[in-house]
Amino acid sequence: MDFDRMMVRLEIEKVLTLLVKQTQLVEQRSLLEYYHEMFVDLKSLMEPICEYGSVVHLMVILPERLKELQKELKEDLGLGAEFRSLIRW
To answer: Which domain of life is it from (predicted)?
Structure first.
């Protein structure tokens, strides 16, 4: 499967930026640790997806992580329509 790796990278970076902003708003240590873990997890997904074109990471793992994060943040992640359709959001 061929996909626009730069678009995927930009969308993940957008979510990472949102996560950093949310991290700055919380004071609860357990929540900070969770946000940090999610940040590291999302950041680590960028390499197999954007560098190696891993469809499994893109189509299976990434959507699960993003849905979990959106549920936790109770906020729309601002994902673009093209990206949402690519990962079957």
So the answer is: Bacteria
Closest by Cα among 70, 54, 17, 71 to 39: 17
Q: The pTM is what?
A: 0.81
Does the residue 15 lie in any domain? yes
3-state secondary structure of 54: coil
Domain residue limits at 28? 5-84
Q: Who's near 70: CB < 8 A, 6+ residues apart?
A: 76, 77
The DSSP 8-state label assigned to residue 75 in this structure reads: S
